[in-house]
Amino acid sequence: MTLDIQPNPEQLAQAAADFISAQVKAKPDLSVLVATGHTPMPTYAELARRVRAGEVNFSRVTAVQLDEYLGIDDDDPRSLWSWMRRSFVAPLGLTRTVRLDSPRQFEAAIRELGGLDLAILGLGPNGHLGFNEPPSPPDAPTRTLALTPASLASNAAYWGSWRCRQGPSQRGWT
Questions:
Q1: CA of residue 59 relative to chain centroid, distance
Q2: Is residue 78 a contact partner of residue 157, using CB atoms and an 8 Å limit?
Q3: Choosing from 68, 128, 132, 155, which is the catalytic residue?
Q4: Nearest to residue 122, comparing CAs of 44, 18, 46?
Q5: Is the pLDDT of residue 165 over 90?
Q6: Helix H or strand E segment including 70
Q7: Is 38 a catalytic residue?
Q8: Nearest 5°: phi and psi at 111?
Q9: Distance (Å, rounded) from C-alpha 110 to C-alpha 64?
Q10: CB 131 within 8 A of CB 167
Q11: Residues 6+ apart with CB under 8 A from 47
């Protein structure tokens, strides 16, 4: 693993877009696990700019959904599927996606792809990756889980005035 520390969010977005673009150029049918949240949005915007400029072609890339809130309609702007489509799939012109519907179907689709080539992940306030809440084991399967108070607090801004006593549950890929 290589650690690449960037001094600010703009340079992080450029460095990440450089890396992702290089991966797509090396393997045009790349499968990429896509995070939502605020951190990757500048990177996705830079990738979209590069696609529009003809610098990189994502037409054969498969976007794989990382996680999703349960009980939210696909078209709800809070849906992570909706967010992934708005921020990554549509701007990059992707037509190949893998939904996180049922764990069994999802894992079968990942196997059919031959696994994942790249994962774009965010680090949560409690150290989680991809909503694998502590103390999730490293080999935890795709599953439904309750979000921790730290994750609920960090995601509260996405929910506006909607409140739930226990918070939304989420499926997560590991």
A1: 18
A2: no
A3: 128
A4: 44
A5: no
A6: none
A7: no
A8: -60, -40
A9: 8
A10: no
A11: 17, 20, 21, 56, 58, 91, 92
3-class SS of residue 68 = strand
- Matching residue, tokens 């069994």: 104
Residue 97 in this model has a pLDDT that exceeds 60: yes
Give tens-digit pLDDT for 48-69.
Answer: 999 999 999 999 999 999 988 8
Which pLDDT value is given to residue 172? 46
Residue 116 has pLDDT above 90, yes or no: yes
Q: What does the pLDDT read at residue 150?
A: 80
Q: What is the pLDDT averaged over residues 129-155?
A: 81
Whether 117 is a known active-site residue: answer no
Determine whether 133 is an active site residue.
yes
Say if CB 110 and CB 64 are below 8 A apart: yes
Residue 126 falls in the annotated catalytic set: yes
d(CA 88, CA 76): 16
Q: What is the tens place of the pLDDT at every residue in 22-38?
A: 999 999 999 999 999 88
Which pTM value belongs to this model?
A: 0.85
Whether omega before 138 lies within 30 degrees of 0, making that bond cis, reads no
Candidates 173, 84, 80; CA nearest to 132 is 173
